[in-house]
Please model this.
Amino acid sequence: MGRPRKAAKQAPATVEDRSERETVIHMKGSADYVDWLEEVHRKTHIPKVQIFRIAVAEWAARNGHREPPEI
Model:
């Protein structure tokens, strides 16, 4: 017998249907990058994900994009 087929993907939910939070990004980096981010987090006490959110919002503003939606 062959391998089982994967389940068919469902159509994306509309904004109204999505009440749960979803994973936005899974980021990999070098050990040096991990160490750097940990150091910044410990010195500033800003959560790592918040550092990312701040950076994305600032990048969008500088490059003429709308600001990210509320979380």
Q: What stands out?
A: The mean pLDDT is 88. The two ends are 46 Å apart (CA to CA). Residues 11 and 17 are 12 Å apart (CA to CA). The helical segments are 31-44, 48-62.
